[in-house]
Amino acid sequence: MIRPVEVADIFRAYGPLYRNNHKLPTRHLRAMRAIEICRTAELGGHKYRCDTCGSFTIFYHSCRNRHCPKCQSLDKERWIDARKKEVLPIHYFHVVFTIPEDIRPIALRNQEVSYGILFKSVAQTLKELCKDPKHLGAQIGLISVLHTWSQTLMNQPHVHCIVTGGGLSLDGERWISSKPKFFIHVKVLSQVFRGKFLDYLKQAYEAGKLSFTGKIGELKDKKNFKELLSKLYGQSWHVYCKPPFRAAQKVVEYLNRYSHRVAISNERIVRFGQGRVTIRYRDYADGDKTKEMVLDALEFIRRFLLHILPDQFVKIRYYGILSTRNRSTKLLKCKELFGVPLTETADDQLSWQELFERLTGIDPTLCPHCKKGKLILFEVLGPERSPPL
């Protein structure tokens, strides 16, 4: 059986050439290297022996880099378990905020500042509008997740928000539900979001926090920057609110779908050979059809690296009643109002073996050779060692 193509295969084959041709920031080099050696002998691992048939099995260590397509499943599963404890028996909305194309080159060259502004603008837009009695008059909760890519790996920063369909009253004593099928008109969300983002962007510019290099060098000139702002104020910014969902399982499914994604999964790589990479993507502009695109291997690497986030940048954030400081107070009050049990589960203490089995249905302690015996640790393998079986 032919092994499916992985991002790591492309990096191993064309990464050296790409690195020779481009001066890359340290975080890009580190991510590429991590993906290349993930689950290989270079990272070491554990060697197990079956207590029944005596055969050996090796599990190599994962790189744990957050941009690696192979390393998100277990972390995501632990994260989802934690979120399950916070789900209320209400309807939720999925709202997506996307920045316009004219801002994207600025965001790409100023990721930490621009993505921070994006998060702040989105959160303030939702919280302030929902506090307004004209819309809801309550304190909502939301989880925001940053994605920076389009289906074809181009630069398209946007934030997915899971928003409570209602909130805690401003006096903190009762739950106020939103209309079950309607949140806030997207035109209102768009206008407020646009104003906040551009105001913060202007502040960052005036404080000298933005860098303008390459093709956007002309924006160093204040006149040119003001002209860009005027143009952006005149545009409609894309905000999309998806139909609400009520069941707790649906909330978890949505979180599971968006939380720990990377720019492209290995499953979307169709073919790789002769310097060409074929990827599968969904064309939203053409009826959501599934299509294929062929990219030069070096162009594939370039596009993938567009989405390596700054070190320590937090891409999942919590606001309102779901923020860290409010979980033990306001969220707890909401649970009491709904009669939700307050007992904690121990799912976050599950071992990787237990999580793996729950995720795949495969018991990793079962011998893959005889299908009967149990794997017993035989040896811990140090890095860069590939012993014979």
UniProtKB/TrEMBL annotation:
<dbReference type="Pfam" id="PF14319">
    <property type="entry name" value="Zn_Tnp_IS91"/>
</dbReference>
<feature type="domain" description="Transposase IS801/IS1294">
    <location>
        <begin position="141"/>
        <end position="326"/>
    </location>
</feature>
<dbReference type="InterPro" id="IPR054832">
    <property type="entry name" value="transpos_IS91"/>
</dbReference>
<dbReference type="GO" id="GO:0003677">
    <property type="term" value="F:DNA binding"/>
</dbReference>
<dbReference type="InterPro" id="IPR007069">
    <property type="entry name" value="Transposase_32"/>
</dbReference>
<dbReference type="GO" id="GO:0006313">
    <property type="term" value="P:DNA transposition"/>
</dbReference>
<protein>
    <submittedName>
        <fullName>Transposase</fullName>
    </submittedName>
</protein>
<dbReference type="Pfam" id="PF04986">
    <property type="entry name" value="Y2_Tnp"/>
</dbReference>
<feature type="domain" description="Transposase zinc-binding">
    <location>
        <begin position="10"/>
        <end position="99"/>
    </location>
</feature>
<dbReference type="InterPro" id="IPR026889">
    <property type="entry name" value="Zn_Tnp"/>
</dbReference>
<dbReference type="GO" id="GO:0004803">
    <property type="term" value="F:transposase activity"/>
</dbReference>
